[in-house]
Amino acid sequence: MEFGVIFGLRSATMGRGNHTINDIAYRAGVSQATVSRVLTGNAKVSAEKRAAVMAAIEAFNYKPNVNAQGLARGRTRAIGVLTMSTESPYWGRLVRGVEQSLVGTGFRPLVASALGSGKPEEALDMLLESQIEGLILLGGPMPEKTTTLVGEDFPVVGTGTVTPGLEPYYIQSENVEGGRLATQHLLDLGHRRIALISGPADHIHARARLQGYKTALAAAGVEFDESLIVHHGFNEQKGFEAATTLLSRTRDFTAIFATSDQIAYGVGLRLWKEGMRVPQDISLIGFDDQDYARFTTPPLSTIRVPLLELGEALGKMIVSRVEDGVQPWTPGVFATSLVVRESTARRGQRG
């Protein structure tokens, strides 16, 4: 399968004279999505808008990139995948699921990442320049332009992000329930002082997993303590730094719920450097069940998210939207489940 990766570090400059479809869209008074649809012919566009786009194309003598197979036939068969990072195991597994779902469909994935540039707008522009026929949004803050795409009925689906109008095509996992399961596991082991280390407080997954944590504490009659909560980032370094913050604030806890496995890896290292043993001194549980979770020392208890299956569902849904313009089924919410390994133990159990 052809698999392209575009890094969103600069603006695209495709077409003769360095004109882009953004230039065409501006001159024609339409969106980039409309220009893309005129070029690919994969969706209906009003005669008035089509005429305006064609006039702008002629004025600029614009020649689209023909490297994409199928463009000469009026189709690129390209599905854009916009993610914040290609380095993250979480989003990487989702992309793998999308890839698998597109095998045999005639469509190919084209992945764009903002990486550390903080410019998802440029990554999206590059995808649109490639005349994608549909777009999959994978997490993080998305460009405001995605709202325009959804409003114009350009085929878009997503997960891990909130875009107005995308709700019917947004696939999610049971993050609230997963947060509850992780916390309940620690409660069942006798822990009452349970710290939570999470991603940014305004992140959709961080909010949901915190909600599950609070729900489990309330059901067990355990008072919520704000001093045990640290919000930072979702990767290993952020987990290490957040654990440092927690330890500088209090050591009155016996367990930590890290709301991603990557956070848990960083937390575990910080505890080790502090001479605190897992699970003898501190029980530690993560979230996601990434491949490496089984190979930490000790192996990490976690909450499994069926990322591969979720990615496959996204791929199937976008193909359906591109081909039929409708969503023929409701994917529902993907269940999360508890995976118990050796990083959690009964409170007071020492070895």
Note down, in words, how this protein is organized.
- With 351 residues, this protein is of the alpha/beta class.
- The protein has two domains: 4-170, 3-Layer(aba) Sandwich (Rossmann fold), CATH 3.40.50; 175-305, 3-Layer(aba) Sandwich (Rossmann fold), CATH 3.40.50.2300.
- The protein contains eleven helices and 13 strands.
- The strands form four sheets. A five-stranded parallel beta sheet has the order 1-3-2-4-5, with helices on both faces. Strands 8-7-9-10 form a four-stranded parallel beta sheet, sandwiched between helices.
- It is elongated.
- The N and C termini lie far apart (51 Å).
- The relative contact order is 0.13.
- The model is unreliable at 1-16 and 66-73 (pLDDT under 50).
Topology of helices and strands:
Elements: E1 4-7, H1 21-28, H2 32-40, H3 47-60, E2 78-83, H4 89-102, E3 108-113, H5 120-129, E4 134-138, H6 145-151, E5 156-159, E6 172-173, H7 175-188, E7 194-198, H8 204-219, E8 229-231, H9 236-249, E9 255-258, H10 261-273, E10 283-285, E11 302-304, H11 307-324, E12 333-334, E13 337-339
Parallel strand pairs: 1-3, 2-3, 2-4, 4-5, 6-12, 7-8, 7-9, 9-10
Antiparallel strand pairs: 11-13
Helix pairs in contact: 1-2, 1-3, 4-11, 7-8, 9-10
